[in-house]
Amino acid sequence: QSALTQPASVSGSPGQSITISCTGTSSDVGGYNYVSWYQQHPGKAPKLMIYDVSKRPSGVSNRFSGSKSGNTASLTISGLQAEDEADYYCSSYTSSSTFVVFGGGTKLTVL
Amino acid sequence: QVQLVESGGGLVKPGGSLRLSCAASGFTFSDYYMSWIRQAPGKGLEWVSYISSSSSYTNYADSVKGRFTISRDNAKNSLYLQMNSLRAEDTAVYYCARISTGRYYFDYWGQGTLVTVSS
């Protein structure tokens, strides 16, 4: 069982927007602005898409945005494109004995 | 450009040992904390361990504490993971990742190396 809770799957049509949620506790998501999001295509390594809740690394499309409210962080992808179809994982710093915790992952299907 | 290349994965029997390596290039390796993250087949990501830039600090997930040891050789730009007393549940792709300076996220990842623990 993952420490952070994500929906198993979401879907959307090209051009639409989708949002993936990531729910934790006050010991991780809610307590710190250290949420990050990773995109993983099948058979590939994860790629950083969002860090520190809402910051985008250089080279990541501005169609990807992040936010947080209380113990829940969100990744929004606007203007869905076929290449956005992938697994998405959230991660957060945690004040427990571990370093970071991950969500279970969300499979995004572009219809 | 930043490159991380893992090696050393393979098939090992339960109770056996394996040493993974990660060769880094394209950045000043000695300036960065590094980490290992694993992904069991068809499952999500699990943080395994990290090591500070000078090897002063290490930390491990409870699931591997006492069995795995992370180390690095800054002269060789290499990161290692010594895995002992391996169990079936350690079967996974192991990724080497760079930790962004002073932060809590992984900005570059290797392509991963598969470790299979089976008799």
TrEMBL record, chain A:
GO biological process: adaptive immune response
Keyword line: Adaptive immunity, Cell membrane, Disulfide bond, Immunity, Immunoglobulin, Immunoglobulin domain, Membrane, Secreted
Chief location bin: membrane
Entry keyword Secreted: yes
InterPro entries: Ig-like_dom, Ig-like_dom_sf, Ig-like_fold, Ig_sub, Ig_V-set, IgV_Light_Chain
Every Ig-like domain range: 1-100
Domain of life according to the entry: Eukaryota
Cellular component aspect of the GO annotation: extracellular region; immunoglobulin complex; plasma membrane
Membrane keyword on record: yes
SUPFAM superfamilies (alphabetical): Immunoglobulin
Compartments reported by the entry: Cell membrane; Secreted
Gene3D superfamilies for the chain: Immunoglobulins
Subunit structure: Immunoglobulins are composed of two identical heavy chains and two identical light chains; disulfide-linked.
Name of this protein: IG c963_light_IGLV2-14_IGLJ2
Species, as recorded: Homo sapiens (Human)
Taxonomy of the source species: Eukaryota, Metazoa, Chordata, Craniata, Vertebrata
